Amino acid sequence: MGLSLHKQVLAKKIITYVFCIVGVFCAVFPLFWTLITALKPSTEMFTYPPSLLPRHVTARNFVDAWKKAPFGRFFFNSIFVTSSVVAGQLFFSSMAAFAFARIKFPLRTFFFFCFLSSMMVPGIVIMIPQFITFRILRLLDSYWALILPGFLGTAFCVFFMRQFFMAIPDSLQEAAEIDGCGYAKMFIVIFLPMVTHALITLGLIRVVAVWNDFLWPLIATNREVLRTVPVAIATVFFNYRNIDWAGLTAASTMALFPLVVMFLFTRDYIIESIALTGFK
Questions:
Q1: Whether 53 and 78 share a structural domain
Q2: 25 and 67, same domain (yes or no)
Q3: 146, 220 contact by CB (below 8 A)
Q4: Cβ–Cβ contacts within 10 Å for residue 230, how many?
Q5: Residues 224 and 72: beta-carbon distance below 8 Å
Q6: N or C, which end of the chain is more exposed by having fewer CB within 10 Å?
Q7: Same structural domain, 36 and 84
Q8: Under the phi-then-psi rule, with left for phi > 0, alpha for psi from -120 to 50, and beta for the rest, what region is 228?
Q9: Which domain holds residue 244?
């Protein structure tokens, strides 16, 4: 009986590890292949059968891609827009989440579910009204058009932070209220420091989303000086006649690099935020 139970446990572990390995492979291999392709000379990119590792490693593709267009300006635009939007989303979404989780007011649950229902509306549906609104306000083709649509937060951000605020024991809020602490001070001094890991995790999620946003920056801006990295990659290396695959893979690798570095520095916070979801 004991041996049979041991075999079942071992089989479950093996199946779990197999699924994990397959998942990691599916997630990492495209990044690996992009990097390897960017390091290949143009003559090796379409050889058959394809080689897993380049026969001749070269960094020429990165140099040519960087010189082909003002990518320094494009990276500045992406960094400025992403940092501004994510900072606004974290600030306003955390305040709204605190209100929905900790402040009792009439119809709180009703208003929260009404707000949450906006997640069911595809972003493409509101893009045309949003474009018309910004055109009327004469904010198109500016940094305002890139920052304002997501600056005040999203329903997902509020829902994400609300779950962490609700997991904090009620005794802390009761003790703060007994000491005469108002909601503003309670939010800043007590609750916000306790959800730092959640903020970092949400920040990383939103950084990836805003950094990779393509359609709205493409529609909202016309000037080259305002292009973000995804729009620049699409417009510089694609045309109707051919595609510059060497420059495309090199530029894509450069665009992925900041996100990978950020993930490596914040992975411990992500793991800890997941572990803290059940500390109530």
A1: no
A2: no
A3: yes
A4: 20
A5: no
A6: N
A7: no
A8: beta
A9: 62-278
In this structure, what CATH number is given to the domain that contains residue 256? 1.10.3720.10
Number of domains present in the structure of the chain: 2
Residue 94 has pLDDT above 60, yes or no: yes
- 219 in the same domain as 119: yes
Do 98 and 172 fall within a single domain? yes
Same domain? 138 vs 4: no
Q: What is the pLDDT of residues 51-90, one digit of tens each?
A: 777 777 888 888 888 888 888 899 999 999 999 999 999 9
Write down the pTM of the prediction.
Answer: 0.84
Q: Of 14, 32, 58, which residue constitutes the final position of a domain?
A: 58
Compute how many other C-beta atoms are within 10 angstroms of the C-beta atom of residue 96: 20
In terms of domains, do 108 and 231 share one?
A: yes
The two tokens of residue 30 are 């495209």
185: left (phi over 0), alpha (psi -120 to 50) or beta: alpha
Distance CA 244, CA 60 (A): 13
Give dist(CA 239, CA 65) in Å, integer: 15
Rounded CA separation 160/90 (Å): 11
119's tokens? 């997640």
43 and 67 part of one domain: no
Predicted local distance difference test score (pLDDT) of residue 185: 85
